[in-house]
Amino acid sequence: MKATIVIPTYWRGPASEAPMCTLESDYLYDHATPLDSEGTLGRALDSLSVLKSPEDFAVAVVAASTRREIKQAVELKVQSIIARYDYDFPFLMIGPDELVLWRRRLVQAGFREYDDFLDLDGYANIRNMCLLAAALTEAEVAILFDDDQVFEDPEYLTKALEFVGREHEGSFVAGVTGYYVRPEGGYLAPPEQSTWQKTWGGRKARNEALKVIGEPLRLKPAPLVFGGNMVIHRRLFESVPFDNRIPRGDDLDYMINAMFFGHRFLLDNQLWIRHLPPPRCAPAWHQLRQNIVRFARERAKLATQRPGPGLHAVDPADFDPYPGRFLKDNLHDIVASTSLEMAADYLAAGMEEDAAECMVNIAISKAESRIRGDAFGEYLARQQKWEEFIRLLPQMHIWSPAAGND
Questions:
Q1: Mean pLDDT for the chain?
Q2: Using one digit for the tens of pLDDT, what is the confidence trace for 304-363?
Q3: For 102-159, what is the HEC assignment?
Q4: What is the pTM of this model?
Q5: Which of 92, 193, 297, 398 could, after both became Cys, cross-link 60 (CB 3.0–4.6 A)?
Q6: Neighbour count for residue 89 (Cβ, 10 Å)
Q7: Which domains does the chain have, with CATH numbers?
Q8: Rounded CA gap, 149 and 70, in Å?
Q9: Looking at residue 232, what is its pLDDT?
């Protein structure tokens, strides 16, 4: 079974110019690497050497930047890191230059209407590029892996491909997720410390959901998924895209989208990777703001879903305790209480501008809670267009394993 390991990598401007993130665009990704540092990509690529390879596999790297003006510099930086390695497997890099060329070829082939899928801005668009990389390399399975992680289990690939694409307890396995082992060991996060973190309750709810990992049964329905440890069969990645209106939490949102189409991810408690994240770049109020938009969008999709061919009803309670905690009608109340407590912490630290942003979050939450529209219909239209795009991909000739990008 041919697999492609896809590694998105995120970069921001040089730390010598701005040691801390100061531009809101730099808040876009949690762990964007400064251009004047080595970052974590080389370490991730090094870890590929520990893998035993019972199957045919390829590797793809997707290079993203926080700002338009540094895209070329990011492409050169990532190319310079990749060039240090000799590979005995097919390798694809997707960066700004590739997208310019691919768009040109797509237009020449008469498929301009699909060029919005060739996008490297935002988590969900980048994840869709990861799925596209798997399709272009003719993989049966896409393995999503992040650049702030390392492989330590030599049997990872064997385990990753053991169940996906096969029947398990009478159902086709289209998606499998493993889990992250923390730098210090274990998979549960330490308890929340601040008052606002306890009020938000995300870490506690997530830890509660993760207790399923310790249960004896190896494979069970996944309460959540890990974006850097997802194994997705082509039957799923060719039909279900990531929702580009989701600013963060794209992995959990993908799990929800898959369930709309009858695909339930299974969690394998033997499929693990080591997660070694750098310090987060964005301030807490901005991460909360992205979560407000994300959960409001997901609640709207769940609320506006409707019957249809191939569609399955999904209930917010299916995701308890996490992310189900944030998919209920009391989301705005949780946001308001959390924001007030976060603002108090900022004011105590003399950070008045950050405290003001917390108040803006309350207003955003109130507005988002009232805006529903037809979020499910919008996603369904996007999904149908993605299916067409993937089906027509062979006619577009944007890239081939033999010819590369020459």
A1: 93
A2: 999 999 999 999 999 999 999 999 999 999 999 999 999 999 999 999 999 999 999 999
A3: HHHHHHHCCCHHHHHHCCCCCHHHHHHHHHHHHHHCCCCEEEECCCCEECCCCCHHHH
A4: 0.95
A5: 92
A6: 12
A7: 3-282+376-396 (3.90.550.10)
A8: 24
A9: 98
117 with 389: CB under 8 angstroms?
yes
pLDDT tens across 283-312, in order?
A: 999 999 999 999 999 999 999 999 999 999
How much is the pLDDT for 114?
A: 97
How far lies 103's CA from each of 169, 266, 356, 386, 403, in Å?
43, 36, 42, 16, 17
CA distance 34 to 17: 10
Give the pair of three-digit tokens for residue 289: 């703001």
108: which 2 tokens? 């020449």
pLDDT (tens digit, 9 = 90+) per residue, 233-271? Answer: 999 999 999 999 999 999 999 999 999 999 999 999 999
